[in-house]
Design a protein that fits this description.
two-stranded parallel sheet, 16 helices
């Protein structure tokens, strides 16, 4: 969804007046800087809590245990390892997105060239990009940025095309949003039926042909579904929904740390429903609420400077 929205806003806001230096300066301040700060804090948390670092194989052959016992004697080693986590975005499971999308931002002139092509060429390239994505799958553990760019480019293209035709497409997307949701469910079912994998398909080498990935098409349908749903909901004045939308980037940065804390909380675990679907909604609601409270507190304390820390 974030990829689709990024493509949409690139075209909707910057198609006629784009400066790469100005664009990247803003993205550095409000995307890259919060990422660096929170990743560094996350690394410090793992360091001082003696918890196992996620994706520890990123360190190559592994670091000796003495690094954790004598931190200040190995500052350079820690700086290198922290740099590796920043490069791959794996201090938290969802942070792979930041190195990926930052590279996409750098390619904005290329994507804007796509937006200036004629409609027929854009449609042909869009369909071709979807077919390529279905063949290459997502990279293993989302570690390969180039692989991710190849896989997610059709969603970026889709966002660009919707942005270009926004006034013409807004009403149909709103009207058929439930249809897009149903298509997403069908595609998820096809994925599970033909690949025995319910979730996303990942592979190490994108040039190795295996199964057909339906999930990139499902992500496109989900993006249109949520866009149509937002259009429907905007008719109602829902301050809470508006707050969640404005804080979405901060929630993205915080939610996995909240989920980690929740998994170790006996109180929250005790009241979790036994039915799996209800348990999922329960977990999402609690994590969203706690993340929003933390984000609001940070914003209250730091004021406008909170954008440099949590992106909101």
């Amino acid at each position: 969804m974030f990829v689709f929205v990024s493509g949409f806003f690139l075209c909707y806001r910057y198609a006629k007046d784009f400066s790469l230096s100005t664009f990247m300066a803003a993205k550095t301040k409000f995307v890259l800087l919060p990422y660096v700060i929170i990743t560094t804090l996350g690394y410090a948390f793992y360091l001082w809590s003696d918890a196992d670092l996620p994706f520890y194989q990123l360190s190559g052959s592994g670091l000796p245990n003495i690094l954790w016992d004598h931190v200040w004697d190995h500052v350079w080693d820690h700086a290198q390892l922290l740099g590796t986590y920043l490069l791959y975005g794996k201090i938290s499971g969802a942070y792979w997105y930041i190195p990926f999308i930052f590279c996409v931002f750098l390619l904005s002139p290329l994507y804007l060239s796509y937006s200036r092509a004629n409609t027929r060429l854009r449609v042909v390239l869009l369909l071709f990009a979807f077919l390529v994505s279905s063949a290459v799958h997502r990279p293993e553990s989302n570690l390969n940025v180039i692989h991710s760019i190849v896989y997610f480019t059709p969603l970026y293209f889709l966002g660009i095309n919707v942005g270009l035709q926004w006034q013409n497409l807004k009403q149909p997307i709103e009207r058929f949003c439930l249809v897009f949701g149903a298509i997403a469910l069908v595609l998820a079912g096809l994925q599970a039926s033909f690949s025995d994998v319910v979730d996303n398909l990942h592979k190490q080498n994108m040039f190795t042909l295996t199964s057909f990935d339906y999930m990139i098409w499902q992500k496109a349908s989900l993006s249109l579904f949520f866009l149509g749903l937002c259009l429907r909901l905007q008719r109602f004045r829902l301050p809470a929904l508006k707050t969640v939308a404005s804080a979405s980037f901060a929630l993205y940065f915080l939610h996995e740390w909240v989920l980690m804390a929740m998994s170790n909380s006996a109180v929250i675990t005790e009241f979790r429903p036994s039915i799996e679907l209800l348990s999922w909604f329960y977990t999402i609601a609690i994590a969203l609420g706690i993340s929003l409270v933390i984000a609001t507190a940070i914003k209250f304390v730091l004021g406008l400077k909170s954008r440099y820390v949590i992106g909101w």
